[in-house]
Design brief:
Elements lengths: L1 E4 L6 H7 L8 E6 L4 H13 L3 E9 L1 H7 L3 E4 L5 E3 L11 H16 L4 H9 L6 E2 L2 H7 L8 H10 L4 E2 L8 E2 L4
Parallel strand pairs: 1-2, 2-3, 3-4, 3-5
Antiparallel strand pairs: 5-6, 7-8
Helix pairs in contact: 1-2, 2-3, 4-5
Length: 179
C-alpha cells in the first residue's frame, strides 16, 4: 500500500509508478489538498488500470478527489472529506481553457461511472471554492466507511517494517510499503 500525502506535483505520477516495479502494491492511502491536475489524472488512470483499492484516510480534494472518484474500490475514514471544484488556472480563476478542461473532466468522469450528482458539484463549484461530498454522494459511489488496509498495518507493525519517504521535492509526501 502506498501512502500519498501533500500537494500533488509534477513528476509524482512517475515517482508513484516507479514503486510498482518489484513490489506488489494493492492500494493507495490518500490525503491531499490537490495540486497538479495532469499528474492527478495520470495517477487516477494508473490506479484504475491496476485495479487499486483507494482509501481516503484524510481530506482528499481536487486532483486527489479525482483519483478517489474514478477508482474501482473506494474506502474512507470517518474523518475524511472529499472535495471537488471546477478546473482553475494558475491564478485561481477560470478561462476558456479551464472551462473546456472542466467539461472534458466531467465527460470522462461520467464515462468512468462517477454519479451525475458528484459531477454536478464539480462543474458548478468555482475554482478557489470547495464542495464536499455528502452521504448521498457516497452512497451513489458505493464508498465503504472503513480502512481496508488495517490488517496490513497491524501486520507491518508486528513485523517492525519501516516506512520509507518518497524521493522528490515534496518532503510531506510519504510512501509506505506494507505487505
Amino acid at each position: 500500500m502506498l501512502r500519498l500525502r501533500g500537494v500533488i506535483e509534477r513528476g509524482d505520477y512517475l515517482r508513484l509508478r516507479s514503486y510498482f516495479g518489484e513490489r506488489r502494491i494493492v492500494g493507495l492511502d490518500l490525503g491531499s489538498e490537490g495540486g497538479s491536475l495532469e499528474d492527478g489524472f495520470r495517477i487516477a488512470r494508473f490506479a484504475q488500470r491496476k485495479r487499486l483499492t483507494v482509501y481516503a484516510s484524510e481530506e482528499c480534494d481536487s486532483a486527489c478527489a479525482f483519483i478517489f472518484l474514478t477508482s474501482r474500490k473506494r474506502y474512507m475514514s470517518p474523518r475524511a472529506r472529499i472535495g471537488v471544484h471546477a478546473v482553475g488556472n494558475p491564478h485561481g480563476g477560470e478561462d476558456v481553457r479551464t472551462i473546456r478542461d472542466t467539461v472534458e473532466l466531467a465527460r470522462l468522469s461520467a464515462k468512468l461511472g462517477v454519479p451525475s450528482s458528484v459531477i454536478g458539484r464539480m462543474v458548478t463549484t468555482p475554482p478557489g471554492k470547495m464542495s464536499y461530498l455528502d452521504e448521498r454522494d457516497h452512497l451513489a459511489l458505493k464508498t465503504v466507511a472503513r480502512d481496508p488496509f488495517a490488517d496490513m498495518r497491524e501486520s507491518t507493525i508486528r513485523n517492525s517494517e519501516k516506512t520509507a519517504t518518497t524521493c522528490g521535492p515534496n518532503a510531506e509526501k510519504e510512501v509506505s510499503r506494507l505487505e
